[in-house]
Design a protein that fits this description.
The protein is mostly helical. It has one domain (about 10-160). Helix content is about 70%, strand content about 0%. The protein has helices at about 15-35, 45, 50-80, 90-115, 135-160. It starts with 12 loop residues before the first helix and ends with a helix. The relative contact order is 0.15.
Length: about 160
């Protein structure tokens, strides 16, 4: 049995443009806006200098972009996505969101409870069992979903042209 190497997803330049350009064109600005909007939910908002706040926003946005791309790539591996035309978008999205959620839950717990490198303000709603911020978890439910929906629509439009 021979493998049609041209059909492997990781060798398809269209896929890399989709992930590294189209996905990030939507995901990056959404992440930046989310980071700005949730600033009051962290003590940084009232306790840090404007320069420290700006650094945190840039750092967190770049981290979100990295996590978002890695989550999507993990999803493509786990779901054995195949060529773009045969993607099961729901599965890819579910795995990407799941990976983002798990990573974020661990990171929030580790940085607030173990390292204590940041803290939530009184405004941050917390999950009931483990005191994790609801906002960062919602971020990973919503932003990859929106970005992938936009990418899927763009891919459909490109296939129709």
């Amino acid at each position: 049995m021979t493998i049609d190497r041209a059909r492997l997803w990781h060798e398809d330049p269209r896929l890399w443009r989709l992930v590294l350009v189209r996905y990030l064109v939507v995901f990056a600005p959404l992440s930046l806006l989310w980071e700005l909007a949730q600033l009051p939910l962290y003590t940084l908002w009232t306790q840090a200098s404007p320069a420290s706040i700006a650094y945190a926003v840039i750092h967190c946005t770049l981290g979100d972009m990295l996590i978002g791309v890695l989550a999507l790539l993990v999803a493509l591996l786990v779901t054995r996505a195949g060529p773009l035309e045969r993607w099961r978008w729901g599965r890819v999205g579910a795995v990407a969101v799941g990976f983002g959620l798990v990573y974020t839950a661990f990171s929030e717990w580790f940085n607030t409870a173990v390292r204590m490198s940041w803290a939530y303000s009184d405004w941050m709603p917390l999950t009931p069992i483990v005191a994790l911020g609801v906002s960062p978890l919602l971020q990973w439910l919503l932003l990859p979903t929106v970005a992938l929906a936009w990418v899927r629509a763009a891919a459909r439009k490109a296939n129709q042209a």
